[in-house]
Amino acid sequence: MGEENHEIVVREFDRKKDLLGVEDVERRCEVGPSGKLSLFTDLLGDPICRVRNSPAFIMLVAEMSEQKEIVGMIRGCIKTATCGKKLSRNAKNNKELIKPVPVYTKVAYILGLRVSPSHRRLGIGLKLVLRMEEWFRENGAEYSYLATENDNLASVKLFTDKCGYSKFRTPSILVNPVFAHRVRVSDQVTVIQLCPSDAEILYRRRFSTTEFFPRDIDSVLNNKLSLGTFLAVPRGTYTTESFPGSDRFLADPCESWAVMSIWNCKDVFTLEVRGASLAKRTLAKTTRIVDRAFPWLQVPSVPELFKPFGLHFLYGIGGEGTRAVKFVKALCGYAHNLAKARGCGVVAAEVSSREPLRFGIPHWKKLSCAEDLWCIKRLGEDYSDGSVGDWTKSPPGLSIFVDPREF
User: Fold this and answer.
1) Global pTM value
2) Are 387 and 144 in contact (CB under 8 A)?
3) What residues form DSSP beta bridges with 109?
4) Is residue 318 predicted with pLDDT exceeding 60?
5) Which structural domains are found in the chain, ordered by start?
6) Which residues, listed in sequence order, are joined to residue 107 by a DSSP beta bridge?
7) Residue 61 in 3-state DSSP?
8) Model confidence pLDDT, tens digit, residues 223-279
């Protein structure tokens, strides 16, 4: 798979001969503005790490044909996910039941577009995107989407003005530091770890009509990077030993409950904040020293973010009942303590900006992003509109399901 234009060849990534060139472009693209904080990502020697757990994935590189120099790259993956819902009528015990069921579509995701600073404004980014979209179409994807920072004007302009994408959703990325002390989890809540099969039943029964819900949720929950799914229920209702299974639980659920899954990004990539002044680094170190010396003070210490650190990603966040927000907060506390035990620097979640449960997710504003921009494009006009119509024109719902394989 290759194509040449203006001495640029776009082809599939070859680890043996492209790894050093790709890493060099990554380093050059992550040079932050002088005197400002910048976030650097170390992919731990695996440039495809952030897509390789998806059902289908690829990485393309742009190469100067004569110099054999890598000057750009792009990654993409494809899955089947929920794009809407419809009402289904089923006869049961001579009674007709009407319930919403998911409508699935094959959707592709673009991430990690990079062009070497010395080769920008030559159309390389556009060329990479268009070739990636060809691969998407060849593999039956109906839609393509991507996430970018709202203030990344160059990226937004490329995708919306030149590639035909539309601004679609603006979820919030909520990031919380992992303190040197354990956080208190409410004693009014019991946290139960579900086995993957029970987690799958719960998610399919309650959240499969949520936008972007992956049809292969079982693959996600059974992945080696999944640290488990956790259910919060009122104290005194169930214990780990007495939990009857998701089928019976959902047949007669508690008045309030919440669920959350945790994904181990630490084994995929690490992050590092660079560009911090000596004063800021000293202040952060001081908070950690005080927190370790006097943990009962519950000082909100700043973790060591100025050297490589790992993160845990919280996904599949949902719940029901009047106390669901409080139960989500309890699950976040549980997740924080798990991240502390495993040596992570932060925990992160991404939820719809309209998600009611987001108020239970602790986060620091300076580390978070209030509006991450998702853009979407319909890849062909010959697809059936089905019962949903053109997904790109659909209004947002209260929730979205953020696939941890694409974070």
Assistant:
1) 0.92
2) no
3) 77, 145
4) yes
5) 2-140 (3.40.630.30), 174-367 (3.40.630)
6) 79, 143
7) strand
8) 999 999 999 999 999 999 999 999 999 999 999 999 999 999 999 999 998 888 888
Residue type, 401: F
Phi, psi of 245 (to 5 degrees): 100, 155
Q: Tokens 């660079």 — which residue?
A: 274
Q: What is the mean pLDDT of the chain?
A: 91
Token pair in block for residue 320: 């029901």
Lookup result for tokens 């693209």: 29
Position 177 confidence tier, pLDDT thresholds 50, 70, 90: very high
The whole-angstrom separation of Cα 311 and Cα 268 is 10
* Pairing state between β 172-177 and 166-169: unpaired
Asked whether the CA dihedral 324, 328, 329, 333 is positive or negative, the reply is: positive
Q: Please determine, for residue 8, whether its predicted confidence score (pLDDT) is greater than 70.
A: yes
Nearest of 195, 111, 102 to residue 397 by alpha carbon: 102
| In the block, residue with structure tokens 């209030």 | 370
**Distance spanning both ends of the chain, measured CA to CA:** 27
Provide the pairing of β-strand 346-351 with 311-320: parallel
Torsion on CA atoms 320, 371, 407, 379, rounded to nearest 10 = 100
DSSP string, 147-207: EEETT-HHHHHIIIIIS--EEEE--EEEEEE--SSPPPPPTTEEEEEEPHHHHHHHHHHHH
pLDDT at 4: 44
Q: Per the structure block, which two tokens stand in for 338?
A: 């798990």
Contact present, 378 and 394 (Cβ < 8 Å): no
Residue type, 182: R
Place of tokens 């890493």: 23
- Determine the pLDDT at residue 385: 57
pLDDT confidence band for 294 (50 / 70 / 90)? confident
| Tens-digit pLDDT profile for residues 106-137 | 999 999 999 998 888 889 999 999 999 999 99
Do 115 and 29 meet the contact criterion of CB atoms below 8 Å apart? Answer: yes
For residues 200 and 194, is the Cβ–Cβ distance under 8 A?
no
